[in-house]
Amino acid sequence: MTIADNLNKIRVTLPTGVQLVAVSKTKSNEEIMEAYRAGQRIFGENKVQELVRKWESLPKDIEWHFIGHLQSNKVKAIAPFISMIHAVDSLKILKTINEEAQHAGRIIPCLLQFHIASEESKFGFLPDEAEELFSMTHLSELLNVAISGVMGMATNTEDVSEINREFSTLCGLFHQLKTGFFQGNDHFREISMGMSHDYLLAIENGSTMVRIGSTIFGERCIAGK
Ligand SMILES: *Cc1c(COP(=O)(O)O)cnc(C)c1O
């Protein structure tokens, strides 16, 4: 199976309106170009240095999505070109993104990451704290970020009912925010959830963006996790 074959196999399973982010972390420019030639334009990376290197050397019509945990001091390097930042997990980082976007003369689409998994290691806002947190801050003053929806990762488990529960929690949160705090905000429309092993469950639960790596490009070594 080639990368193009893998992509096509995934594409036929995606309903209209569900976008595919091809997660290319640790993969080479050659592998990315193979996906590019098969028509893929959205790629996801989780390391700033690696992303900048790829952005510099690959076609400029690629939309790069940052999907990892982002540190404040690294925002500046990606602000000029990043298409979406998926894992905004604090107001501090959101404010930094806003500042750097302003310097770059851009409005950067951002997703709020929620902690939905039972695993402790995952980043994100807690579902209970979100709305209160947002209403205490002046999100509307952050003119250079477009808060475009939510993102989350389910627990890495074989337990389908647990994964379903976590994805449906995220979907519920999205709708709560969409009809509450973000009411009337047209940007707020994405639910980024689902990876190689659970993306079909994510779609059943309302995902609008799946982030798929190993099913397209093959397994990564542990160092790339
Ligand atoms: C690596 C990664 C993915 C893709 O994982 P696969 O299991 O290879 O599909 C998706 N989302 C995030 C946040 C990741 O870090």
Overview in brief:
This protein has helices spanning 3-11, 29-37, 48-57, 75-78, 91-103, 130-136, 160-179, 199-204, 214-217; strands at residues 19-23, 42-45, 63-66, 84-88, 108-114, 145-152, 190-192, 209-212. The protein has 225 residues and is an alpha/beta fold. The protein has one domain: Alanine racemase (TIM Barrel).
Would you write up a description of this structure?
The protein has 225 residues and is an alpha/beta fold. It has one domain: TIM Barrel. Helix content is 36%, strand content 18%. It is built from nine helices and eight strands. The chain has helices spanning 3-11, 29-37, 48-57, 75-78, 91-103, 130-136, 160-179, 199-204, 214-217, and strands at 19-23, 42-45, 63-66, 84-88, 108-114, 145-152, 190-192, 209-212. The chain has an eight-stranded parallel sheet. The model has no long low-confidence stretch (mean pLDDT 94). Pyridoxal-5'-phosphate binds at residues 23, 25, 46, 67-68, 153, 195-196, 211-215.
